[in-house]
Amino acid sequence: MSNSAKAEGVLALHRFGMGPRPGSIAALGSDPRGALIAELERPLTLSAAASLPTSAKAYRTVADANARRTARAKQAQQQQAKKQQMASGAPGDQAQVRPEGQAQGYRQEKDAAEMAAKQAADAIPDPGRPIYLQEAKLRTEAALGAEIGFAERLVWFWSNHFCISANKIQSMSGAYEREAVRANALGRFVDLLLAVEGHPAMLFYLDNLESMGANSTAGINGNRGLNENIAREIMELHTLGVRTGYTQDDVISFANVLTGWTLVPPGADPQHGGEFTFNPRLHEPGGQTVLGKRYEQDDVEQGRAVLRDLAAHPATATHVATKLARHFVADEPPPALVEQMAKSFHDTDGDLKQVAITMVSSDEAWGGPPSKLKRPGEWVVGMVRATGITQVDPVLYTGGQQLLGEALWRPPAPKGYPDDEASWIDGIGRRLDVANNFAERITAMADPQAIIEDVFASQIAPEVKQAVGRAESRQQALALLFMSADFQRR
């Protein structure tokens, strides 16, 4: 293989994939672009996913555990109260106790009851954390095991674009990505949009469970009103983009359209709790006007109709194309590339696979130097892939992600994690700590020279080769290699 083919292969694996791993450059052959496109034809399913619960099942599991914890805590408090009552003696004895002593006794009794309740509740573990870690392990190992990782990167991109937060809905976070994002990441944008906005995790995250129309049955009888969060984020972040012509009235109308989109309470239905449902008692009756179009449906189809029109809007094509190009190519992507991708989106009715093919087929996507700083998650996976490791300890892995400021499925806001260098450059020092720690753990099994020559096909900057060769130890050599621009940038 020529050096130019090797160089383009390394660029393909960094810019569009998950980074080189043993044998990956050779597998690309002389046509890296063709190899990227070929990967999109393979299914995105996860072989081990069948062992994990659905999002609804995970939600019910956590809800059931919480209910048992509450019951155990109440039982413990009651038992502690009985013990205290028996120990207090006859009522007449209490009259001899001074007021300050009586108050102290009450505090001690209260503290004892609270301690007993906490210990009883803690005896039932929270199943949400293990479910989260299992999902994290499956997702990470899919990225480590992929030949190139282009398709996995697209899953990561769309998961961040349509983000939720495990801080708010931990039990569903991984299953949401599998069910809504992964299942539609290479399909039509409208199907992806319908899947994510109708998923219980998104409805929970953006507070739509709290939203009800003012003139709905529940709105008239209750004391809660309209919540605009999901309507605003769909327009501003998920489809049209900011400053694209929609108004506050459009947001309010769209929020009314989405009233009634909720989930089945787990206590109300043990078999279907946590699943999506449309509740007409919460839905604002009557037609609504959004972006100048009237929607007269009186059920769940009203919201789906608006989503379909948002997916087909020209501003959505431009917004999606810009974000994709910014993520994969450059913080300031070439305008010609964005235009090509937006046209592909429009011409194919939002076929996301074709938009991705348009991107990697364009010379504009390959012309710039590897100057884009990798996000922490990309860098960590690239570092691990280079060693040939394909299995991870999810506790260590997610801990490292959190240390680097990109905790898995925990973005700080609905706009997701940022994709520009300015947002991540200050964290380089923390990357050094992670690189040193990882290098120490793999020193016995990873040879830095082998990574340079075999994994990267010697397509590493001469000064990096020199620094690695002069390192005082293998651990230091690995850390220097992992911290080099060849690993940090794409």
TrEMBL record:
It comes from the Bacteria. Residues 73-87 have a biased composition (Low complexity). InterPro entries: DUF1800 (IPR014917). Pfam families: DUF1800. Residues 63-121 are annotated as: Disordered. This is DUF1800 family protein.
